[in-house]
Specification:
It holds the Pfam family PH. It is found in: Early endosome membrane; Endoplasmic reticulum. With about 250 residues, the protein is α+β, with helices and mostly antiparallel strands. It folds into two domains: about 140 residues, Pleckstrin-homology domain (PH domain)/Phosphotyrosine-binding domain (PTB) (PH-domain like, Roll), CATH 2.30.29.30; about 60 residues, Herpes Virus-1, CATH 3.30.40.10. About 20% of the residues lie in helices and about 25% in strands. The chain has five helices and eleven strands, in the order H-H-E-E-E-E-E-E-E-H-E-E-E-E-H-H. The strands form three sheets. A seven-stranded antiparallel beta sheet has the order 4-3-2-1-7-6-5. A two-stranded antiparallel sheet has the order 8-9. A two-stranded antiparallel ribbon has the order 10-11. It is globular and about 60 Å long.
Length: about 250
């Protein structure tokens, strides 16, 4: 069906509508062979709280942005190549239900659908698109992904030293390797993670020691599958501001 729609006028028109919704600040989305598979609102677990985001699934990319005007205007466009995506289901807990992880080498995060049916449809379509892309390219699935950041609300003290309490003065920081919420003294070092940035990024002392000695696998396992224990945040508290995890901390 994707091949049949690739060059259809209806598909071209739908993609053009998505482009226009992002305005001049968004990147062009129309290229030969690209097909819009589906779209919808998902709740994205950000650094400070869950937020509503509009997602668009194409046969080769996943696009999402902030909702400015429902079904009419979006900003802060993010484009994720599906070839690098892996997804994992998340167990339901409290208000956070029907969720899964979207993991890539540069960025990983949790999203939640309104119903179990929507979750199943999103996951099935994403997996199908990824499978088709890998089959055509002959590539293997990515086995490297960025850590999912622990939300600020889940840490009242540094997750490394277990001593420093967070206050308006003693700010929270995130290790780019393990995703833990850490204090300044526990994350003063920088390390080059090429998949995430061309410049050295903030990491905690624990990960720095492991990376410096080449024990990367141990560092990665420190956060492996930890989001099966979902944070107990309210899904009703959403806003349209920037993604918190894109900040410098």
């Amino acid at each position: 069906m994707v091949d049949r729609l690739a060059n259809s006028e209806a598909n071209t028109r739908r993609i053009s509508i998505v482009e226009n919704c992002f305005g001049a600040a968004g990147q062009p989305l129309t290229i030969p062979g690209r097909v819009l598979i589906g779209e919808g609102v998902l709740t994205k677990l950000c650094r400070k709280k869950p937020k509503a985001r509009q997602f668009f699934l194409f046969n080769d990319i996943l696009v999402y942005g902030n909702i400015v005007i429902q079904k009419k205007k979006y900003n802060k466009q993010h484009i994720i190549p599906l070839e690098n995506v892996t997804i994992d289901s998340i167990q339901d807990e409290g208000d956070l239900r029907n969720g899964w992880l979207i993991k890539t080498p540069t960025k990983s995060f949790a999203v939640y659908a309104a119903t179990a049916t929507e979750k199943s449809e999103w996951m099935n379509h994403i997996n199908k698109c990824v499978s088709d892309l890998l089959s055509k390219s002959g590539k293997t699935p990515s086995n490297e992904h960025a850590a999912v950041w622990v939300p600020d609300s889940e840490a009242t003290v540094c997750m490394r030293c277990q001593k420093a309490k967070f206050t308006p003065v003693n700010r929270r920081h995130h290790c780019r390797k393990c995703g833990f919420v850490v204090c300044g003294p526990c994350s003063e070092k920088r390390f080059l993670l090429p998949s995430q940035s061309s410049k050295p990024v903030r990491i905690c002392d624990f990960c720095y020691d492991l990376l410096s000695t080449g024990e990367m696998a141990a560092c990665q396992s420190a956060r492996s599958d930890s989001y099966s224990q979902s944070p107990k945040s309210s899904l009703n508290d959403v806003s349209d501001d920037d993604d918190d995890e894109d900040s410098s901390d």
